[in-house]
Design brief:
It is a single chain. This protein has a single domain, classed as ComB-like (putative 2-phosphosulfolactate phosphatase), CATH 3.90.1560.10. The longest helix has 15 residues. The strands form 4 sheets. The protein has a 5-stranded parallel sheet with strand order 6-2-7-1-8, with helices on both faces. Strands 3-5-4 form a 3-stranded parallel sheet, with helices on both faces. The protein has a two-stranded antiparallel ribbon with strand order 9-10. The protein has 298 residues and is of the alpha/beta class. The structure holds D-malate (MLT). The site of D-malate has 12 residues, from loops.
């Protein structure tokens, strides 16, 4: 009998949004937060803190610098770098050299980092997904459970065309693994993906945000964000010693996979199931839901 999976999808995420109970959240923000996150780890970045607001990011960077760290402060407000940031939120502006001199980053964006932190509050494991790494992320998610949550960051708490298309690609991939039960929202995303035609970039360029980004000079980000499955990195949320949410890659290879230069995709190292919160919390699964209980003090 084939394995049975479930897919549930939330079209947009803002503070305090209700999130259904799932085994793992795949958080999507194609333009551009999760594409930037994927690129960060492709280029060898080791730690990336997603924070909700630019002020929070600035204050956190000061704290890290006081401890001798030199994090890169990156992100956007209305698509452009906020005052005092080292970098905006363009994935094509990230370079190997930049990341080698700043292995740690602090990132604040309008929707993507908010969605990541909302998903973290659910108590389920959270993975940052883009078109670039969606198959590797799905494969890893399936080592955690069978009820897959797709959290589209959306745009200012409303659905986004490109995030929904990416979610549809993931759902289609999931449907090839066995029997799949889909929420209506998941069915809508799958339908959107299946109707993409033969040019994903042109399809994605219909989105409000894609039109806006092209208007403000970030046209190159669109094609970059639409490269399918060129990476095997799996950025997963964990909690650092002070319970800050931090992204680390739990699987895959740092170097970006380039079709033209590599005949065979770099093989993913067998993914050890990592519970990113194990050092902080005890993870307990009840039949009806997942929840985290704080580790009993010794
Ligand atoms: C978002 O958070 O929605 C994006 O990062 C916005 C952007 O990069 O333009």
């Amino acid at each position: 009998m084939s394995e049975r999976f479930e897919a549930d999808l939330v079209f947009a995420c803002g503070e305090g949004n209700y999130l259904p109970a799932v085994d793992v959240w795949l958080v999507i923000d194609v333009l551009r937060a999760t594409t930037v996150i994927t690129r960060w780890f492709e280029l060898g970045g080791t730690e990336l803190y997603p924070v909700k607001t630019p002020d929070e990011a600035r204050n956190f960077v000061l704290k890290l610098r006081e401890r001798g760290s030199s994090p890169l402060l990156m992100g956007e407000v209305n698509g452009i770098p906020p005052e005092g940031f080292d970098l905006g939120n363009s994935p094509v502006e990230l370079t190997y050299e930049l990341i080698q001199s700043h292995y740690c980053g602090v990132m604040s964006t309008t929707n993507g980092t908010v969605a990541l932190n909302e998903a973290a509050l659910s108590g389920s494991p959270v993975i940052a997904v883009s078109f670039r790494n969606y198959s590797a992320c799905l494969d890893y998610a399936l080592t955690i459970g069978r009820r897959i949550g797709l959290l589209c960051s959306g745009r200012k708490r409303r659905p986004s065309w490109e995030d929904t298309i990416c979610a549809g690609a993931i759902i289609e991939a999931l449907s090839t693994k066995g029997e799949l039960a889909m929420s209506d929202s998941a069915k809508i995303a799958l339908n959107l993906w299946e109707n993409r035609g033969d040019n994903l970039l042109e399809y994605v360029k219909k989105s409000e945000h894609a039109i806006y980004l092209e208007h403000i000079g970030y046209k190159k980000d669109l094609a970059f964000a639409c490269e399918l499955d060129v990476s095997t990195v799996v950025p997963m949320l964990a909690a650092d010693k002070e319970a800050h949410t931090i992204l680390r890659s739990v699987s895959g290879n740092a170097r970006p996979y380039h079709k033209e230069t590599e005949s065979v995709k770099p093989e993913m190292k067998p993914a050890k199931r990592a519970d990113p919160f194990e050092e902080l919390l005890t993870y307990t699964k009840k039949p009806s839901e997942y929840f985290y209980v704080r580790k009993k003090e010794k």
